[in-house]
Every structure is written in structure tokens, then in C-alpha cells.
Amino acid sequence: MIKNLVTILLFVICITQSEKEYTLDDLIGKGTPEFYGEGYQLQKEAYNAFLLMKESALKNGIDIEVVSSYRSFEHQKRIWTRKYKKFTSEGLTPTQAIQKIIEYSTIPGTSRHHWGTDVDMIDRNKKAPKSVLNPENFIGSNVYSKLRIWLEKNANKFGFYLAYTNEISRKGFKYEPWHYSYKPISKPMLRQYLKIDIQELLKTEKLLGSEYFTDAFITKYITENICDINCILK
User: Fold this and answer.
1) Which of 1, 76, 86, 151 would be a feasible disulfide site paired with 155, CB 3.0-4.6 Å?
2) Residue 159, by phi and psi: left (phi above 0), alpha (psi -120 to 50) or beta?
């Protein structure tokens, strides 16, 4: 029954979402779209697919919990500001702090989490370690290894794909086995997002450290951090 529902859902969404246009504010986390979810926020189609995936995982003893979904521009800015202040106070230069931040965190206005299509997931059935979103928790026989294996085998059936893989050739953000993106919506959103003048956007937002966002840095960031993702999502 679930398999049939998933097939129908993905077919309908591929038709309806392919023509949808998003505003600049929607793409950079400043819009006010309608979201769905309890304790998390997703676009309706992604939410419906997530519920089906969660139901399927439960039958395998895995209780998927979303620890992060939609983030507004201001939310991402708070993360950026906190980390920038922390790393510079610890003695890193501004450029070193920026490089440290973008190992796992995006510059505000550039996050996939702005779209309501991406989720960071753990298994609620497991006792959460102090730092839940740590790759070590998902590999070997550690706390979220069962979740990782299940997602790798099944998430694609529901339209969700690993965003930042562990492929050696991939650059940009480090491996995030917890971060999955709902392809039927996020793929067309990425295409529209890349039409934005990202250089101008990052220069005008006046973020901490933004005076160090050189043209060369922004070009590299777009190429490696925004675009060097799971090829299925491009």
C-alpha cells in the first residue's frame, strides 16, 4: 500500500512542481511560505512524503526524528554569528573562522534548509549523544548506524536523497549522513536559486566577516559548497 502511495505521490509532484516559480525571498529564507509538520517545517509535498518514509521506518524499528528542517535567513544568521564570534575569540583569524564555519554550516542566504525541503534526521529510539550531528555517530556500529543504513537503502523511494555524500572527489561541505533533501522540489529550487546574483547577495547582507568575502572566495563557495552535492540533486 505504501509503495503504491509513494509512486502516485511522486508522479503527481513531478508534474506540479516542475512549473512552480519561487520568489527571491523564498529561495534565500526570507519568504513566508506555508509549512507543515510538528516540531519541524516542510513544504506540503515534502511533508507528505516524509510521513510515508517515517511510517515505513517505524516498521523496521526506527523512529525518525527531525532535528532540523526549515531555517529562516535570520535563523541561519544567528548560527553564523555565534560560530564566527566563537572561532575568532578562540584565536582564529577571520578567514580561518570562515573556513571553519563552512565545513558544516552555510552562509545565510545560501542554505538548502531555507527551502523547506531538507531534513537532518536521527533515530528517536536511541539515546542521543551529546553531539547528535556527528558523522562518527552514523558509521561502524554506533548509535545511528542502523538509521544510516536504512536511509541509504530506502530514502530514495520516498524522494529523499543524501545531500552531502562521502565521495572522495566531492568538495565543499563535509559528509553529512543525516542530511536528506526532497528532490522533486529541491532540484528545481536549486536551478532557480543559481540564477540569483549570489555575489551581490552576500556582499549586501553585511554579515560578520563579510568584508573577507572576496570575489574569488564567493566563486569557490558557489562551486564547491552550493553546487558540489549529490549529483542526483543537481
Assistant:
1) 151
2) left
* Signed CA dihedral, 188, 190, 191, 196: sign only: positive
The one-letter amino acid at 149: I
C-alpha cell at 233: 540533486
To which H or E segment does residue 7 belong? helix 2-17
Distance in Å from the first CA to the final CA of the chain: 30
Cell numbers at 89, concatenated? 575569540
> Cβ(196)–Cβ(147) under 8 Å?
no
pLDDT digits (tens, 9 = 90+) for 167-226: 999 999 999 999 999 999 999 999 999 999 998 988 888 899 999 999 999 999 999 999
Q: Three cell numbers at 12?
A: 503527481
- 76-86 core/surface letters (b: 16 or more CB in 10 A; e: else): bbebbeebbee
DSSP state of 62: -
Question: Is the model's pLDDT at 9 over the cut of 60?
Answer: no
Q: Are 68 and 113 in contact (CB under 8 A)?
A: yes
| pTM recorded for the entire structure | 0.90
- Please state, in angstroms and rounded to a whole number, the distance separating the CA atoms of residues 132 and 225: 22
Q: Tell how far CA 208 is from the center of its chain.
A: 22
Ordered by start, the domain boundaries in the chain are 2-233
Please name the amino acid found at residue 1.
Answer: M
